Amino acid sequence: xxxxxxxxxxxxxxxxxxxxxxxxxxxxxxxxxxxxxxxxxxxxxxxxxxxxxxxxxxxxxxxxxxxxxxxxxxxxxxxxxxxxxxxxxxxxxxxxxxxxxxxxxxxxxxxxxxxxxxxxxxxxxxxxxxxxxxxxxxxxxxxxxxxxxxxxxxxxxxxxxxxxxxxxxxxxxxxxxxxxxxxxxxxxxxxxxxxxxxxxxxxxxxxxxxxxxxx
Length: 215
Hints:
Layout: E1 2-4, E2 7-9, H1 16-25, E3 27-31, E4 36-41, H2 45-55, E5 64-67, E6 70-76, E7 79-84, H3 86-96, H4 99-104, E8 107-110, E9 115-121, H5 125-132, E10 147-149, E11 158-163, E12 166-172, H6 176-186, E13 192-194, H7 197-206, E14 212-213
């Protein structure tokens, strides 16, 4: 364990190199609860236009995009979530709470301490998510939106499907342990392995983040 930008993170579980190898050949499971997690509501047209400027473009409901280090996911026509590393996330929160955003009608809720975040990363991510039912009865990732709700272990979970190699699950802190165990169980046949921040960072260099994931 270590503190990064003031928040505790798991650096590794004993071997960052071995954990990276697990992501490359199979799938890694990581806690990302240190991320800043914002819910941004933009009920009026002016507020949505302001949100789109900050997010770098229009997002259709269910769509997702990556802009300047921030993951955005549209949970509805007038609501989005934003995920970012703590320092960047706090800067974004302050920007969205500044006078121009407030005047435009943007509303921001910081869920960083209320929500847990779990990442599923690696070559066999699709197998794990299909086994969990995230892709529906057909098990086809092409039939679900990049932002999709699917409960796990009787816990409500919002999934941000960032690419074929990475997904992030968001849920209430109280349900985080149950969701972790469920994902771990579903991933056993795919060779799932708990991984830390170092392995995640190295794997991200091998698979750069896509700019956007439209519907």
